[in-house]
Amino acid sequence: MKYSCFILLLTISLSCSEKIPPKTKQASPINKAQIQIKTWPMTSSIRAITAIDNNRLWFGGSKGQFGYTEDGGTTWTIDSIQSDKNANLEFRGIAKTSNAVFLLAVGAPALLFKSEDKGKNWTIAYEENHPAAFYDAIAFWDDQEGIAMGDPTEECLSIILTKDGGNTWTKIPCSQLPPAAENEAAFAASNSNIALVGDQAWIVSGGGKARVFHSPDRGKTWEVFDTPIIQGGKMTGIFTTAFYDQNRGIIFGGDWENQAQNTANKAMTTDGGKTWQLLADGQDPGYRSSVQYAPNSNAQAIFATGIPGISYSSDGGQNWTILSDSSFYTMRLSSSGNTAWLAGNGKIGKMTW
Q: Which domains, ranges and CATH numbers included, belong to the chain?
């Protein structure tokens, strides 16, 4: 009898212990003394960058400018695109596959350019002449399938897809998308309105509503989820998102017109975007326009940049430190995890630690 009770107690103990999740290991802390930022002056305002590794970066900016470096910034190739369809090209979306680079211009007409020879020649892969056309971001799942998103031209967000390496793009009809709320749109702040993991896609909005649109199947079907991010104002909502895996993600933004506001401007999900919990509410940082998870950090190391400053969390967004007071619009981490490329008004930066 005593032996049976002991076995029973042991079984209950083991069963309970198996249900206790392991403690999440924090990422290594980073302080200002470790940070080095080198900047290069540019003649355009840059919100679209794509980092290939520590040495290779492409960018698109205002005045139709684009460029790249392949040696860590020692030398730059910089050029511009001129188009009789739009005399004031401004690129706020960029993507690169193994075979091509894509530049997405804001405003009407919507123009998506493609080059297969490192920018020597460009073709228009997609054009939309609706007067309300305004595309905000572009990303690729792989070399063949990609997605771009923009503001509503009808009663839904604008979403276009490619399945042939970006040669042709098809716009999803509103009958296949959740309807947009009144004054709901997106911000072309950093080319990070879209996050892709596996076959999934997440798209974030702002303005009248701050919501997360989700597709589990590369854009075939869609659902939408509410968030606690500040919303309802012209310049409030979600400006950026990142997903570490298919469950864990972060959204960031706030109020462009009140950048110090640090309430209801950052939130996380652990269920693929269905529900969101505010992070460090009422704590710095305030407004941020670009957020990135560090690779191989178990979703604990997070960088966020905006105006003003670059912030870092080593515990999944619960606490933040300011790494730099320098303002940048956007950032991308290299796969090494110790280099971040940044871009802003008239500059590109490279941060190492």
A: 36-352 (2.130.10.10)
